[in-house]
Amino acid sequence: MKIRKAVIPAAGLGTRFLPATKTVPKELLPIVDKPTLLYNVEELVSAGIEELILIAGRGKTAIEDFFDVSYEVEELIEKTGKADLLKQVRELRKGLTVISIRQQQALGLGHAVMCAMPVAGSEPFAVLLGDEIMITPKGKPSGIAQLNKIAESTDLSTVAVIEVAKSEVSKYGIVDVEAVKKNLWKVKAVVEKPSVKSAPSTLALPGRYVFTPAIFKILQKTKPGKNGEIQLTDAMTALAKQEGMMATVIDAQRFDAGDKLGFLKANVELALQHPELSGPFRAYLEDKFSKGR
Ligand code: UTP
Hints:
Layout: E1 5-10, E2 30-31, E3 34-35, H1 36-45, E4 51-56, H2 61-66, H3 71-79, H4 84-94, E5 97-102, H5 109-114, H6 117-120, E6 125-128, E7 132-135, H7 143-154, E8 157-160, E9 162-163, E10 173-181, E11 184-192, E12 203-204, E13 208-211, H8 214-221, H9 232-242, E14 245-248, E15 253-256, H10 260-272, H11 278-290
Parallel strand pairs: 1-4, 1-6, 4-5, 8-14
Antiparallel strand pairs: 2-3, 6-13, 7-15, 8-13, 9-12, 10-11, 11-14
Helix pairs in contact: 8-9
The structure holds uridine 5'-triphosphate (UTP).
């Protein structure tokens, strides 16, 4: 299989980040100087993905606008010789077709993915959660590129997993797996936010997936599960049983930017890697902590 399309579900309500997300979509909150969404777009473009299917919701038009040409700003920066500031966004825009679909009601992640069906059609596709950031060092394949490689060689749906502490399992979808070889597992089932007692493992889903189109038919039949939402994890269990599914830990720094602490960590880490800010920011932190305040 060849992965040419990616879906970014970005229609959630972002309640963990209120009041910031009352009018600003969490996918547009900046991590240093770029919106969360842009990190995800960079990740998928560097994996050779050509088509992005954005799942947006009510109050999220700013996300769709982000991919348009902003005439006023762009004309102004051309005139003032600051065009470099938008160079990166312009480059990304060139090679990527962006299609936006509305999820009219936030009925769950499974439902959001199902909204991509008319466009994704009969092709395998990647899914990147709009509020999860995966950072890989320069020169290394991006998070989703690492996943695509396994999906393309096994011809199976493939999902990223991370090892979490036992006390954390109830925050994630957790996989029940069988080891195949180093860093490759066969997924038997997926459980949505299990209790510590009932968790089948400590391997959690951080929000990167590759699915065959069979997931759509399964999602159409999936009944609302935990919290009354159509759970992607329920459909994943059915897909794993029907066709098979692989899991791997991708080599990347991962941040849950939809969570306040995760968002702060992402800002600190990425500021420390930023070409202009790393020096002065590190100096500020060292000074601050050396004085114990
Ligand atoms: P989350 O559960 O993290 O998003 O869903 P949320 O519901 O927006 O956040 P909180 O918990 O209220 O703070 C993971 C991803 O799935 C998308 C979200 O936008 C997020 O990127 N999502 C979730 C949808 O697109 N539609 C949904 O119905 C639910």
